[in-house]
Design brief:
The protein is an alpha+beta fold. It has helices spanning 2-30, 35-42, 44-47, 65-74, 90-104, 195-198; strands at residues 121-122, 127-134, 141-146, 152-156, 160-165, 168-171, 186-191, 200-210, 213-224, 227-236, 251-253, 259-263, 281-285, 307-310, 315-321, 326-331, 338-343, 379-381, 387-392, 405-409, 414-421, 424-431, 438-443, 449-453, 458-464.
Length: 467
Amino acid sequence: MKHSKLIFIFIVLSILILSYSFVFNEKQTSTPKTTRELYLQYCAGCHGQKLERFAARQWVYGSSLKEVSSTIKNGRPAIGMPGYTKAMDDEQITAMANYMISEVAKVPAIVPTSFNDKDTVRSINFSFVLKEAVGKNLNIPWGLAFLPNGDMLVTEKAGQLYLVTQGRMTSVEGLPPFAVRGQGGLMDVILHPGFSTNHLIYISYIDGESPDKVNTSVAKAELIKGRLIHFKRIFHALPETNSGVQFGGRMFFDNYGYLFISVGDRGPKEDAQKLTNYNGKIHRIFDDGRIPSDNPFVKSPHAIGSIWSYGIRNAEGLYYEKKTGMIWENEHGPKGGDELNIIKKGKNYGWPAITFGVDYDGTVISPDTARTGIEQPVFYWIPSIAPSSLTRVTGSVYKGWEGDFLNGSLSFQYLERLIMKGNKVVGREKLLQKIGRVRNIVQGPDGYLYISVEKSGKIYKLVPLKK
């Protein structure tokens, strides 16, 4: 009897050992082995599946095997790139460096797109075509604003501001020199609510004591006969750092004339949870830079008085709903976990205490996706699409789209429609796939939607076709 029990125990243990071995081997074989597979897992999200989004083919930190290997191994915190020593061993890192050096050499200076902007585009609700509003001389058109007469102001990230009149683009004079670093440069542009009488515009840009010590700033100026006068900085985020990532930079005015500004976390994740710095926050100020006395943290010791909400990684879309007074925001997550949020006074939006994403090297940022006292997103994207800009469709031009949100996808190069039922996302539609990095979308005073696309340098008007 005892002998039978021993045999039974031996058989059970053997089965367990075999099962463990099978599962272990399955895990081992599912782990990426080739350099290409490792690239797709860890690098393609930022650089593109065919390295087409490699930073304009510029080897900022050197292009030798030794230099590229060092960049992969140790990371470059200033541009938000982590090191990959936990994800790859030295042999794999060397192979990855060789792979990237050879593949980047094959990438054309301008990557051709499979999208034909002359084609009819079919939404589930209607068909539309693209009409060029601006079609030259732009590389990264970042901000877009309409004057009362229908003219457009367009910012170029490299540091130019343009006035567009019936498709003709002229440079606006009077801008001071701007720093351009990583993701930052000349960013958003909006009009003062009283522009018709005071001619004031507001621009966001990066600024600091040196090109290596910068953060997000906002200035106001009068636009008079195609020239800026009385240029004055009214907001500057601190601390200044050499980081080239997560500047935020979106702005809007609410119904009461307050100016709201987004500032990204600038790299150090934990700054978004600290009220003693500007980073990872939405800010609220008067139109001259003064801080309103009813801001939520004005009386909190050592807190930055302009903070309206915090725990935000990098908001590149802000939309103010004038009828309801609601503030909508989209932000970049890490690898997974981009978010759509309703921004409320004094609320914490969680970054990095909670997140639906992981770090770029695959490590866990937080085990939590929810905690008491922290706001939940209305919607989140996995995988990350890198959402840019945000607008909610109003009016009667786009039948079936009323109340839906639109934003660009920088990572996957399309226009995304979030189908809304009230304030809930009930569906998604991908439009204009592979058109390029859609940086901005604005609904003009004529009721039409306008989008700006990087590299091609074009701004398009979306024109529905009549049935």
